[in-house]
Amino acid sequence: MKKIWVIGSGIMGSGIAQTCCQAGYHVSIMDTDGPCLDKAVHNIERALQKLEKKQLLDQKAADIFANLKKETSFNGAATADMVIEAVFENITLKQDIFKALESICGLDTIFATNTSAIPITDISAAIAHPQRFLGLHFFNPVHKMKLVEIIKSLATSEDTVETARQFVFTLAKEPVVVNRDSAGFIVNRINGMAFLEALRLLEKGVASVEDIDKAIRLGLGNPMGPFELMDLVGLDVVLNARLNIYNETREPAHFPPGILKNMVKAGYLGRKTGKGFYDYT
Ligand SMILES: NC(=O)c1ccc[n+]([C@@H]2O[C@H](COP(=O)([O-])OP(=O)(O)OC[C@H]3O[C@@H](n4cnc5c(N)ncnc54)[C@H](O)[C@@H]3O)[C@@H](O)[C@H]2O)c1
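Above are the sequence and the nicotinamide-adenine-dinucleotide SMILES. Below is the predicted complex in structure-token form.
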């Protein structure tokens, strides 16, 4: 594989694009929001320059950056070997994107979604050839986190899974394969419960945001507490992931507490908006 298209240039899309560039792929990053795309590309250039200064690159930052192309439509995606979608966590939006890509790309192009918690089979139900479709779930921040969950839908072919596994290794990351397509996969299913418990403790006044985070950092050795992590991920992303898991399982334990919904309604989405459980202004 040589050419990778990344759809969406937010937190995850920009991280995935940078990682693919560093691994030597020719990367096109596409977004319908021009300013967001410009900002993402600018941030990638700066991040590469910083890594170069720290002598953490084996090529010149400018050479790696030269592998990155900005796109505002899907038209050039016909020659992509793989498309990785990282747009908002919305099933209709994701399905529409893959339907559009299907009319442009050949059957050899692998389609991957970075969804946090939408079952892969539900997204791929919209396309005619779901055997080339799978979940490639990267973690935030992409350049630091080693894990990529590879999620099979009911229809994903073994060839597609194997190609994706080899691709993940080329990014210097480690894959785990999720055999049964269930919302939240492994990490979000387990960590999401920790988020919900932290929110419930906060709502009940058991402890403050700062002390819950401190307890989890110092008591469990986690690098971040749950509120710091939710702010990093984005509270809208956390809420959508919890709702998707609740909608699939209908288990009350997965239902997000009111405080999370209110924060999202108020636009307090975490680091990306400057305010979440902490203030970043
Ligand atoms: N934030 C995290 O920590 C995290 C971790 C793993 C997976 N995810 C998943 O990755 C996906 C993206 O999350 P994010 O946090 O990067 O979101 P984000 O809000 O930072 O970025 C989403 C981007 O998608 C773009 N977009 C929207 N519609 C588009 C379209 N039709 N075509 C092209 N671009 C479009 C937006 O302009 C925006 O730039 C979601 O499915 C999310 O659940 C997020």
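Residues 7-13, 30-33, 36, 86-89, 93, 97, 114-116, 138, 140, 233-234, 237 surround nicotinamide-adenine-dinucleotide (CB under 6 Å).
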